[in-house]
Amino acid sequence: MSTEVSKSSRKKPLTKADVIRMTSETLRSFYSRDPGATMTHLAENFMWIGAFDFQWCEGLEECLRITRSEYAEAPVLISDEEYHLLFHDRNTWVIYGRYKTTIVLEDDAVIHFHVRVTAIWRRINGELKLVHIHGSNAQDIPANQLAPSLHQFTEETSFFDYVKRIDMLNANANKITLRDHDGKYHFLLPDDILYIKADGHYTAVHTKKCAFTVSGLLSDHEEHLPPQFRRIQRSYVVNTQYIDTICRYTAVLKTGEKLPIGKSWYTGLKNFLQQGEETDCTGR
Hints:
The structure is a single chain. A six-stranded mixed sheet has the order 2-1-6-5-4-3. The chain is an alpha+beta fold. The chain has helices spanning 2-9, 16-31, 35-40, 60-71, 159-173, 218-222, 263-274, and strands spanning 42-49, 56-58, 77-88, 92-104, 110-124, 127-140, 176-179, 185-188, 193-199, 202-207, 211-215, 229-233, 236-239, 243-247, 250-253, 258-260. The protein has two domains: 2-169, Nuclear Transport Factor 2, Chain: A, CATH 3.10.450.50; 174-274, CATH 2.40.50.1020.
């Protein structure tokens, strides 16, 4: 009788589904700004490594200090969750996965994080505790670019303000500034440009949204473009990221536009594209 009672009083063994559910619940409690629910599952020696430089902590006390400003932020939407079991033994479970977060800021800017995460759970004094989380952002996409702040970053800086400013500084560092014939300034990332074309003593710039003419020869602008841009004919420099196929002697862009390829540039272009696994119309 005593044996039966002992068996029935034992806890049900943990399953993969249980640990994945606990991982999801812990992450969701963090993004819903519920520190009590989050900390319930964390071990005293919990170690967190995040995607940004300041996101490094050892122990619960330091974790609470570093995340204090984030818990003061508005809740964050978490979606597209996907978790898997990497490994487990009697006392350790390792879960990996990915998810998406969406944040709407006070200025209506929207930031998306595509996060990759690894979570390590350990059985401590008979209870499963989270001892480590490592998260990394696959992609940050702010919806708008704000003017850079002159203020220094501190531990009191809002986390999402920090991310938005850093991302803006990195993006603006790569922007190309062009002034068209109407006096309008265009601030373009290289990926915004499909190709540029010689137009007499001027240059026509074709983007994903529009086309406009700027002063200067094609060669003047070509020298300021990154390596993904290549001259394919006397009058054309193209962003090779948008080339879908080439066939003597035409380049078809992903937009459907067809551009001429000069005979003297064809082989060099083909070799360059083959490094990225594109082929010509013969399949070679």
